[in-house]
Amino acid sequence: MTTSARPAPKNGEESLKAFHEEGEVDATPDLRLLASLSPYVRPDAALLTLAMGALLAIAALSLARPVLMRALFDGVGRDATATSAALLVAVTLGEQLLAFAQTLAIQTVGARAMHRLRTRVFSFLHTRSLSFFDNQPVGRLVTRVTNDVDSIGEMFASGAVNAAGDLVKLLGIVTMMLLLDWRLALIAFAALPLVGLLVELVRRRARVAFRQIRDKTARLNTLLAEQVSGMAVVQAYTREAGAAREFDDQNRAYRDANMRAIALDAALDATVEMASSVCVAAVLWYAGARGLGGGLTFGTLVAFIAYIEQFFGPIRDLSARYTQIQSSLTGAERVTMLLANDDSDTPPPRAHTTRGDAALALELDGVSFQYKEGAPVLHDVSIRVRRGERVALVGATGSGKSTIAALVLRLYQATSGVVRVDGDDVTALEREVLRRRFSVVPQDVFLFPGTIADNIAAGERCDRERVRTALRTVGALEAFERREGGLDARVDERGSNFSAGERQLIAFARALYRDAGVLVLDEATASVDSVTEARLTAAMEALLVGRTALVIAHRLSTVRAADRIVVLDHGRVIEEGSHDELVRRGGAYARLAALSLGTT
Q: If you ran DSSP here, which 8-state letter would residue 410 be given?
């Protein structure tokens, strides 16, 4: 449905700032963000517990390997050596088998959790009001459902959740190193302050870097969605070069943001590698200077170096996982911000409302409305439509006609005054209950990919006989059955393989299939030629039989048969009556009628 006097969409940089700019995203603490993901993980708590238990077992087995290596090198006799070697093989094999099972389990938990989160975000978007979508670029919303949720899923896929196991392993390694030789342990730990300092520096900058990546990704998606949707205009006005420059600017910004994050990751990884090498060299130097003996055996030295490698392994993993966690938490930050939006499509029904006249199908009682503060669209509008009555709304573009239809459906909520349907205040009704009372035929018909029959059923269970009856009533059954595939003919994206008239006929049949008591026609024949209009007018007459109708139109031929015509001007009702009455008055409608007749 189009909405007259609706604010024009923002363009360029201004529109891109409409949703979660870098500075507008709260610096939510990491633990709180992780806690916000718990509802999506909780159904698989048992599998997650098993995965974490396997992680502890893997840590224990990895700690046992250097001890067995020590026994292997320091063992006396062939039997002792063979036993140590066999145990080492068994421990290594067990560790790898557990690692496989643990990785499979944790990624299964992550895949299921992200499926739930993505479903939640998608369903959440369906509950937002149209005013929410007026201010949000489509590309940004797509980014929330795809890229941002995927980045959270990477926390599971990359093993970042295993960071807890790394910490446990680190504690175990420190304990074993101190037990083996506390002097060598102190030398090995000398490089830790440098690593700790770098991790802290990265921690402060990583979230900012990944937040910038998410922002640039959203901008890139927004620009791409706009360019693809407007490709006909781009090509007609030869804007290819300008569009390419805009895309290159956004693409370059996205690349630069990624490069900053890569530099941080590379610096951290290089420092950890350097610290590991320095520690091994220092331990070997000390062992050489000290010499073997005095409790320092060759097996102990081998085990100690193995522990150093294991010690920096988790640190290296933690550094890589830390950057991934920061990326994931940035995605969680944005998804959490989206889900915190309270601009609901329909707030909870109000308990205390005034009951109107049940004989009226529709009633607007002193309704005023504004899309944005300080720019009123409707001013104290009062309209009453009796059951079975056909009422037309006419007026210049921007006079508020489609806005009235949107308020009746509660796609927007009146700023003041009361809107009633069948005597019920629309704010007292559940969304589904209210909208089931309406069939809507918009000016710009939206068809979903699928079949003709599915589009006519519009999400309800497809009863093919009802579909055929609806098409027959609007006089289009034979035309659609002649198409290849008949009612199962494929519908491309947005119905691009159908003409405007065919899409409109499908919309009429869709309204009949819904079979609601009130019909809203919003410029239903505005975008078709005269021949198609005549065909659609006949279909519309069949659609209107026995129904209350609110008809929005510019063309005189569409509204002159209405029982009553309401003339709007700048959001105010200035005239009301039948076609003949209004023509005799010689007012605004008479001038519109004269202008229409003069141009036909």
A: T
Selection from 136-150, 247-261, 350-364 with the highest mean pLDDT: 247-261
Q: Domain boundary at 271, 305, 339, which?
A: 339
- 580 lies in which domain range? 387-416+426-598
- Helix 149-157 with 78-125: angle, nearest 10 deg: 170
Spell 543-562 as b/e; 16+ CB within 10 A means b. bbeebbbbbbbbbbebbbeb
Once rounded to an integer, what is the mean pLDDT over residues 273-279? Answer: 78
- CA 53, CA 62: separation in Å to the nearest integer? 14
Encoded amino acid at 373, one letter: E
Integer Cα distance of 28 and 143 in angstroms: 20
Q: What does the pLDDT look like over 395-414, one tens digit per residue?
A: 888 888 889 988 998 888 88
Name the maximum alpha-carbon separation found in the chain.
120
What pLDDT was estimated at residue 577?
Answer: 92
Cα torsion 493, 496, 502, 504: sign: positive
Cα(545)–Cα(515) distance, rounded to whole angstroms? 11
| Pair of tokens at residue 289 | 């200077």
Whole-number Å distance between alpha carbons of 542 and 512: 9
Is 492 a member of any domain? yes
Tens-place pLDDT, residues 186-228: 877 776 777 777 767 776 677 678 778 878 887 888 888 778 7
Q: How many CA atoms lie within 13 A of 362 on its CB side?
A: 31
> Residue type for 273, please?
E
Residue written as token pair 């669209």: 377
Q: How far apart are the C-alpha atoms of 393 and 410, rounded to whole Å?
A: 18
Distance (Å, whole) CA 194 – CA 276: 12
For residues 263 and 208, is the Cβ–Cβ distance under 8 A? no
The helix or strand, by DSSP H or E, that contains position 577, with its residue range, turns out to be strand 572-577
Whether residues 405 and 305 fall in one domain: no
Helix axes 45-74, 163-180, angle to 10 degrees: 20
> Strand pairing of 390-395 and 416-421?
unpaired
Q: Tell which wins on pLDDT, 436 or 22.
A: 436
Residue 413's SS3 state is coil
Spatial CA neighbour of 116 closest among 158, 86, 92, 149 = 149
Report, in angstroms and rounded to the nearest whole number, the Rg of the chain calculated over CA atoms.
34
Instruction: Assess if residue 550 is contained within a domain.
Output: yes
SS3 content of the chain, % helix, strand, coil (to 5): 65, 10, 25
pLDDT per position as a tens digit, 305-333:
888 877 777 776 666 666 677 778 778 88
- Residue 43: predicted pLDDT: 92
Q: State how far the alpha carbon of 558 is from the alpha carbons of 39, 266, 310, 524, in Å.
A: 53, 68, 80, 9
pLDDT in tens, 462-503: 888 999 988 888 888 888 888 888 888 888 877 888 888 888
CATH classification at residue 185: 1.20.1560.10
Same domain membership, residue 393 and residue 335: no
Which pLDDT does position 567 carry in this prediction? 92
Same domain, 454 and 562: yes
- Say whether pLDDT at 564 is over 80: yes
CB 277 within 8 A of CB 320: no
